[in-house]
Amino acid sequence: MATAASNALPPALLDFIRQSYQPDSDPVYFAGGHEWSDGTVYSYCKDKAPKLLKILKSAGIDQLSAARERLDFIDFLALNGVDTIYPFYSANNNLVEFCDCDNGYIMFSWDKALGEHIQGLDPIDLKLFYSKWGMLVGSIHRLTQKYPRYLQSACQNSKGQALISFDSEWSYFDGMMRDDAMREAWRLQRQRMEELSPSRASFGFIHNDPHPGNILRDKERFVLIDFDVANYHWFLTDIAICIYSEYSRCNFHSSFRHRSPDLPELFLKPFLKGYQRENDINPIHLDQIELFLNYRRFLMYCVFYDQIHSSNPQYLIKFADEICSFKPYLPSGLRLASLIS
């Protein structure tokens, strides 16, 4: 796939884009298209309004069906007032298009969101962001309780299995576990999570990756982007991702590690209070947060294994030990419910 100007797109694909999205001018490369990317993003304007278009090499009908269901969910959220990307319908009135040239491409478009990420900012200056972040996640969890489905996707594979579900995600990562100890702990992780019976008040279609890198700040507006791994999951999964990502950002990816002891007051309290403004939190559910933080650690171990192994193999061993022993992630004795009582 092209990673430069739009004229590098295959002619037949470019003609299809012109017909389907009727851009003011041909799309130009915006991002992605790398070995590790799942697709390539192009920018264009339609009636002078900026848009983005993501193009993926088709992996078959399952990928197309899953993309359609995720785009339908984003459309549902946008229509109900969530600050997220606004899907853009093609000239054919489709949220997802399929071009059969060159073995097939899947594509979808959305309004280009303005704003910037918070990376590099001091937690002491982010109270508004933390509150709005919590409200954003809470509003999705409140609205998803009205979504037609909540346990798994309508789209299925040829074996009748849901394409988007906790089970499909778990099975995918099960194949990425590196040794017997990790596989055994991963299966224990699933067993403990499934002891928490899913209900409309605790489980549904969620973003599944609402970390700060997927949020753009435009003045006082905060926009959630990138629903590519949206899934049917426990609400605690989203909350744990937020907590894990901000602690990780401060402790490992910024110069603000000295703020870590103060994060319960600086970050957790405004985030959880913001969430609670939009969706009630069951204190009993919150007491299970460490289980979901460990779930996130498992996924990060799998996704970044090669990167960590090449740069810091000793840390990788320590990381795996912490995961397999279900070592608590948050400070000892911290109970999240106490921050919002």
Walk me through the structure:
The protein is α+β, with helices and mostly antiparallel strands. It is built from eleven helices and ten strands. The chain has helices spanning 11-21, 61-79, 127-144, 166-174, 180-194, 235-252, 263-278, 283-286, 289-303, 305-311, 313-324, and strands at residues 28-32, 40-46, 49-57, 87-88, 96-99, 105-111, 203-206, 215-218, 221-224, 231-234. The strands form three sheets. Strands 1, 2, 3, 4, 5 and 6 form a six-stranded antiparallel β-sheet that branches. Strands 7-10 form a two-stranded antiparallel sheet. A two-stranded antiparallel ribbon has the order 8-9. Helix 3 (127-144) runs parallel beside helix 7 (263-278). The chain is globular. The termini are far apart.
Précis, in short:
The chain has 341 residues and is of the alpha+beta class. The chain contains eleven helices and ten strands.
* Major sheet details: 6 strands, antiparallel
Mean pLDDT across residues: 93
Tell me the distance between the termini: 52 Å
Content of β-strand: 5-15%
Query: Can you tell me the CATH topology of the largest domain?
Result: Aminoglycoside 3'-phosphotransferase, Chain: A, domain 2
Number of strands: 10
Number of domains: 2
- In DSSP terms (H or I, runs of 4 or more residues), the helix count works out at 11
Give structural attributes.
Phosphorylase Kinase, domain 1, 42% helix, alpha+beta, two-stranded antiparallel ribbon, disordered N terminus, Aminoglycoside 3'-phosphotransferase, Chain: A, domain 2, globular
